[in-house]
Design brief:
Number of strands: 12
Shape: globular
CATH topology of one domain: Spore Coat Polysaccharide Biosynthesis Protein SpsA, Chain A
Strand order of the largest sheet: 3-2-1-4-8-6-9
Number of helices: 10
Distance between the termini: 32 Å
Order of helices and strands: EHEHEHEEHEEHEHHEEHHHEE
CATH class of one domain: Alpha Beta
Helix content: 40-55%
Strand content: 15-25%
Radius of gyration: 20 Å
CATH superfamily of one domain: Spore Coat Polysaccharide Biosynthesis Protein SpsA, Chain A
Largest sheet: 7 strands, mixed
Structural class: alpha/beta
């Protein structure tokens, strides 16, 4: 995993957070943002309430006097944005009123570390358009629950692979609850409204940057940029989430699609190799397991997440099960959901 050139200055930044039905989680996020080690006179926070049906808006407004930096809460307007869907709409409208040189994004069910803003912006050297950080589930919410640790292992593998390919200038994907974009890049690309497949904000932006040929995407595996998200809670729910992510395959370039198909087929069929090819199949399956283990342990060690390490060796078995569940959901329905709002994918 590549080491990147760092910058030392602290420009004015905007943190934009689209939220929908996050009354149970929003306080934790806002408290973590208030603890950021970043000059308050050089940052602003913009929350975009996307038609929440619970107490999200009330909680968001209750923090107005607690922030030392500029803090605003706006409501997403769906009446005039027919070209934008899902999370992209509130995100685009939040960025519209942001004034930062660099714009950082996260979600309402996340918690950011104290050094998050400083670490993320430090990777914006010349011609870097996007910086993506690592996201992992919050193990402290279920410290003795092995499924959550498997979820952490899975995140580590997927994002470790993405970070590795970004390091050789072949970015595959971002993670939508932990990335930052240079304002100049975003506006030069025409904002989300000009991007293809813009119902998936992170993938649309990453692909537009890649196609531009001018800007770069960097994906550091840095413990200071690790955002913690709410654990999804089970293998079926995880398969549904990955099914939603799989919608991004249409945005990927041919190389990315080939890598995705290869990875899925490999993890779905490795037991068949052992059955059909005996020693050769065992050797091939072992290579898959070793490769997975190297990626996972490297990511977990560099992000200082030690508890899930013991589960890395079992990852091929876990991904075999949830992979077939994901295939079932892909074949059974084209409708996916984001924050209880369905859309076709």
């Amino acid at each position: 995993m590549r080491r990147y050139k760092r910058r030392q200055d602290l420009p004015f930044i905007s943190i934009v957070v689209p939220v929908r039905n996050e009354e149970k989680n929003l306080r934790s996020l806002l408290e973590s943002i208030m603890q950021l080690d970043y000059p308050f006179e050089k940052m602003e926070v913009i929350l975009v309430d996307d038609e929440s049906e619970d107490g999200t808006s009330e909680i968001a407004h209750s923090y107005a006097k607690r922030f030392r930096c500029d803090y605003r809460v706006i409501s997403a307007d769906h009446s005039k944005e027919s070209e934008l869907r899902a999370k992209t709409l509130p995100l685009a409208q939040g960025i519209d009123i942001a004034s930062g040189e660099l714009i950082l994004m996260t979600d309402g069910d996340c918690v950011v570390p104290r050094n998050w803003a400083r670490a993320m912006i430090s990777y914006f050297s010349d011609r870097v358009g996007i910086v993506c950080g690592i996201t992992l589930p919050r193990l402290n919410l279920a410290p003795g629950f092995p499924m959550t640790w498997f979820e952490s292992v899975d995140w580590s593998f997927l994002l470790g692979v993405c970070a590795g390919f970004a390091g050789i200038a072949k970015p595959l994907a971002l993670i939508g609850n932990n990335y930052a974009v240079r304002r100049e890049t975003y506006e030069e690309l025409g904002t989300f409204r000009a991007m293809e497949y813009n119902s998936i904000d992170d993938m649309a932006l990453q692909r537009a940057v890649q196609k531009s040929g001018k800007w770069r995407t960097v994906f550091p595996v840095d413990w200071q940029t690790v955002v913690k998200t709410l654990p999804i809670g089970g293998i079926v729910a995880q398969a549904r989430q990955r099914r939603r992510w799989a919608k991004g395959k249409d945005i990927m370039d041919r190389f990315g699609q080939m890598i995705l198909v290869f990875a899925i087929l490999t993890h779905l069929t490795w037991p068949l190799w052992i059955y059909l090819w005996d020693e050769v199949g065992i050797a091939a399956a072992a290579l898959v397991a070793i490769g997975d283990y190297i990626v996972i342990t490297s990511a977990l060690l560099r992000t200082k997440e030690y508890k899930p390490l013991v589960f890395a060796v079992f990852y091929p078995f876990y991904t075999f099960i949830y992979g077939w569940l994901m295939v079932f959901f892909l074949l059974s329905s084209r409708t996916v959901q984001w924050k209880s709002r369905p859309f076709n994918g």
